[in-house]
Design brief:
297 residues, mainly alpha, 2 strands, extended
Length: 297
């Protein structure tokens, strides 16, 4: 089932009203992914950005599908909200035709959202912020009348979310990836047709038998070498009972630890073996005969 919001012809008409010179009457649905450069000629787009734009055009169309499953629709909105939490536009900071398509197809639904849906604890506040940016930013220059825009009440905030810490988010993703990998390895290691309990029992029996065999081999090797097992046990106990060395006491920092002196430079001559060094004679008030000192002639 299609609706006017999912129709590409309706989207092109919306774009033509704001960008009549860039979107002509001959522009078709196939031209949509490449319209970003026409709409924003001062912005350059890589091949990856063009592919991502095409994907977001498809996603925006699915978000506007009226007969989509409610759970699936909520999942798509949640993913979009997380994506926009660290981005100004869908591509990060660059404007694209995908931003305009998402605004056109999602704005009518957002207008009917409650305050809880917009700024609640489980609301889509990043989506609301993004749509408000698209409809008002000079960067896009949309020709949308004030009465047709989404009304945003800046004072009606139901829940203030804690800002995402990039380091914590990176660590969280690492842990999730490691847990998923470990879980996948654990599932594939089970033999076909065996339960986890049966496989664990057999593995523990094998390990016990292996440990017993290793212990017997060690005893035989010890007897052949003339080792006394009781004596080795006593030595181990004595080693364990030895007290640990206490760490050296740290001397507190004090200005008196610094050998800071004031001296009178009596003479400074060029170093005989270096171009940028000097040999200086400095009077520091030391008594005659002090180590590393000499009388000045």
């Amino acid at each position: 089932m299609s609706s006017p919001l999912t129709s590409s012809s309706a989207l092109l008409a919306f774009l033509r009203s704001s960008y009549p010179t860039a979107v002509s009457a001959s522009t078709s649905e196939a031209d949509l992914p490449g319209l970003s450069h026409e709409l924003f000629p001062s912005t350059s787009y890589s091949d990856n950005a063009k592919v991502e734009t095409s994907q977001w055009l498809t996603t925006s169309s699915r978000l506007a599908t009226p007969d989509e499953d409610e759970a699936k629709h909520a999942e798509r909105l949640g993913s979009l909200n997380i994506h926009l939490s660290t981005r100004t536009t869908l591509l990060g900071s660059k404007p694209s035709v995908a931003d305009l398509a998402l605004y056109y197809r999602l704005a009518p639904a957002v207008k009917s959202w409650s305050a809880e849906d917009r700024t609640g604890e489980h609301g889509y506040h990043h989506i609301v912020r993004f749509l408000d940016f698209v409809q008002n930013a000079p960067l896009f220059g949309l020709a949308v009348k004030d009465e047709e825009k989404i009304k945003i009440d800046l004072d009606d905030i139901k829940f203030v979310h804690k800002p995402l810490d990039p380091k914590e988010e990176k660590e969280r993703k690492k842990k999730e990836k490691a847990a998923a990998t470990a879980q996948g390895d654990g599932e594939t290691s089970l033999p076909l047709g065996k339960s986890r309990e049966e496989d664990g029992t057999k593995q523990s029996k094998k390990e016990k038998a292996k440990d017993a065999l290793q212990s017997a081999e060690d005893k035989v090797k010890g007897a052949a070498a003339g080792d006394n097992p009781q004596q080795s046990k006593k030595e181990k106990k004595e080693k364990q009972l030895k007290p640990q060395k206490q760490p050296a006491k740290e001397t507190p920092l004090s200005p008196c630890l610094i050998d800071l002196r004031v001296g009178h430079i009596l003479k400074a001559v060029n170093h005989p073996n270096a171009d940028s060094l000097y040999v200086s004679t400095i009077a520091c008030g030391d008594a005659p005969g002090t180590d590393n000192t000499s009388e000045h002639e």
